[in-house]
Design goal:
Blueprint (H helix, E strand, L loop, with lengths): L2 E4 L7 H12 L4 E3 L6 E5 L3 H11 L8 E3 L3 H7 L4 H10 L4 E6 L15 E5 L4 H10 L3 E5 L12 H8 L5 E4 L9 E4 L6 E4 L14
């Protein structure tokens, strides 16, 4: 049975943040708010918890998981970033983007795309997740909370609890945080490629619609 925390979206209580991080470190799967929509998260080195998220989402090994990072320095630990990529990241983070980049050796193989050796990375702009990352001291392995058969991510914490109370360990209720997913940009090629149009505008990447 999942625990349920009501947590202030702007000034999250440190005690609740510490409890959430303890759950993550002990192998738990959590539901937490971001600046785009709710997401599932777990410890990046926990293979079992990652498998649980895969089961909840019903996604295969081709699915790109995302590492939620505190800053550009953390991204550079887990992804290969050249000068032009760095400039784009610096101009657009924190924000509503997930970037596909080549993974470094710091990223376990099971978290990388099996053929491309890539990983999704993101720096969010939401006080709750930023407090989580600060307390955790490392990235959070994450996936958007959109369930099989649903068209949109779940946005109501009570509904999340009703549908997932036996599949996750914690639901962090921070009120509605939206149903528009991040814009996904592939930065592994010579020019940025739009993978998914979402909340983040594509103008900074010189990408044309269609």
């Amino acid at each position: 049975m999942a625990q349920f925390f009501s947590i202030h979206s702007n000034t999250p209580h440190s005690r609740l943040i510490k409890q959430a991080v303890t759950i993550v470190r002990s192998g738990g799967v959590i539901v937490y708010p971001t600046d785009s929509c709710y997401a599932l998260g777990c410890h990046l080195n926990d293979k079992t918890a990652m498998s649980r998220i895969r089961t909840i989402r019903q996604v295969d090994e081709q699915h790109h998981f995302t590492l939620i990072c505190r800053d550009l320095a953390e991204i550079a630990t887990y992804a290969k970033v050249d000068n032009s990529q760095y400039r784009l990241l610096k101009a657009t983070t924190p924000g509503n983007y997930t970037f596909i980049l080549q993974a470094t050796r710091e990223v376990p193989r099971r978290m990388q795309h099996p053929k491309r050796n890539t990983i999704g990375l993101r720096i969010p702009d939401h006080p709750v997740v930023l407090a989580l990352l600060e307390e955790l001291g490392e990235p959070l392995l994450s996936s958007t909370l959109i369930l099989p058969g649903d068209e949109w991510p779940l946005n109501d914490a009570e509904e999340i609890r009703n549908r997932l109370e036996h599949q996750v360990d914690l639901v962090m209720d921070s009120g509605s945080c939206g149903i528009e997913m991040t814009t996904v940009i592939d930065l592994t090629k010579d020019t940025p490629e739009l993978i998914r149009q979402g909340k983040g505008p594509i103008a900074p990447f010189g990408i044309n619609h269609g």
